Amino acid sequence: MEKGNSVFSGLDVKKYILKKNLKRDLPSSIVVFLVALPLCLGIALASGAPLFAGLVSGIIGGIVVAAVSGSQLSVSGPAAGLTVIVLGAIAHLGSYQAFLLAVVLAGVIQVILGLLKAGTIGSYFPSSVIEGMLAAIGLILILKQLPHALGVDSDFLGDESFFQKDHENTFSAINSALSHFTLAAIVISMLSIAVLIVWPKVKALSSVPAPLVVVVIGIVLSWLFKSTNFALDPKQMVTIPIVSGWAEFTGLFNMPDFSVIKNKEVWVVAGTIAIVASLETLLSIEAIDKIDPIKRVSPTNRELVAQGIGNITSGMLGGLPMTSVIVRSSANAGAGARTKMSAVFHGCWLLLSLLFIPGLINMIPLACLAAILLVTGYKLTRIALFKHMYHKGWDQFVPFVVTIVAVLFTDLLKGVAVGMLVSIFYMLRTNMRNPFFYRITEEGNKKNLRITLAEEVSFLNKAAIQVVLTNIPTETNVIIDGSNARYIDPDVLETIFNFKHNAYTKGVIVTLEQIKDRYIVPKLNTKIIEDKINN
């Protein structure tokens, strides 16, 4: 009886958690849908692909990838970081159908990478670089959305690069927007920001998601302004294709051209997409785990497999290549999502909006969507984060700031690469300083020097050890103690043995304590760990 009650209680708990999560995931999915919709269309436009292709990619990223992925907050779809690759590939391969085959092959490569456990690469990105990337994304959102909030929409929503395709850059676009602003857009965006800030603080209203209220207000205000001299231009509104029937809908799909599978250029494009999309996904997953309030860790290898399946499906249906996208994922987390169902629902909303309410969606002003992204950007790059990183020390703060600046003035991957280089410099400097410690004592005219090696002495420590050994004065007794060392790099061992061999020429007597001729890297016994966890 007790057992039955226990099972019943367990089922009740699961239902309660599911219901509780659904209360968060459903409103969050609407927010992500509203953010993702113009992004999908804008990225398709910038990539030189059909607008429908961007929507296909967004739908699959929501429904297919989220269902397979192990990440609870990540949202996938077409990424701005791939626009240059896609635009060049379509022109280079000569047809959109040949490009679709490259997308399918890229997906296959990603699945193979996931099965080969290549996702662990994501674990090697320092937290200071990831935090810097997040802060940079926040600043990019603010800087890039300001023109849209002012009503200037000459460039597509979501252009992350400093130098834009319309021959503007981030700052010149803002300057241009200040001299060409639209009063209606400013009113809508300012009111939207006020609602987004105040609405969640009022307990009686917080059950209704603020971004949904913002969209309703935006539609109403744009309708009111329609009969005045300040009416919004159609390009300042969301625009999705309107289909009149099922036959017209199915006619929008494209199929890959498998006849060009032997073309070497197709495979080069596929490899390029697979590598860039995988790196951007791993960076996004690492970043979104950091802003997850529950601090869950996403399985990166499974994520690569999920992205691969998504790209295979997208290529087969005529969509663009996709990645896990930090902008949408951040909006998802900021809206209070708890599980992957938010991403799945957002994909469903994209599909349903395309089929049933394209007219209503086309009534949404881009200014209110820009307001949502402005507030999201501020949450990512809040002042408290800069203070927190500063207090962690220069070895964390400098890579953090360098990453922000590099991402702002280049793009996501290049900026992170620069941040990584700076972080590696600080890591090397720290490792060089901490391979050992030593103590000097004097007995009469003779000096005794004891050098105690650390647990792990890597190749990075070789230079520092060489400097110390070279500067040991004559007539000194040296003891090199390896009793604490679990591993000493072969190059370091060679340095130590060579010093011992030649030390007599300087009158230095060297004694080695518990230093082996050879060390083997200890293997991690995952079976023992799994057994302990299971027991």
From TrEMBL:
The chain crosses the membrane at residues 26-45, 51-68, 75-93, 99-116, 123-143, 177-199, 206-225, 266-285, 305-327, 348-377, 397-428. Pfam families: Sulfate_transp. It is a multi-pass membrane protein. This is SulP family sulfate permease. It comes from the Bacteria. One of its GO terms (biological process) is transmembrane transport. The keyword Transmembrane applies. It is found in: Membrane. Keywords: Membrane, Transmembrane, Transmembrane helix. Its main location: membrane. One of its GO terms (cellular component) is membrane. Residues 22-391 form the SLC26A/SulP transporter domain.
